[in-house]
Amino acid sequence: MRILVLGARGRLASALARAWSASHDTVCMGRPQLDVADIPALRRLLEAHRFDLLVNGTGLTNVDACESRRDEARTVNALAPAAMAAAARTQGARLIHFGTDYVFDGEKREPYTEGDPARPLGWYGRTKLDGELAVLADSPAHLVVRVSWVFGPDKPAFPDQMIARARAGTDVAAISDKFSSPTHAPDVAVWLAPFFDPRLPGGLFHACNSGSCSWREYGEWALACAARRGIPLATTSVRPQLLADMKSFTARRPVHSILSTDKLARTTGISPRPWRDALEEYITNAPIPPAA
Question: Exposure pattern of 135-172 as b/e (b: 16+ CB <10 Å)?
Answer without folding.
Answer: bbebbebbbbbbbbbbbbbbbebbbbebbebbbeeeeb
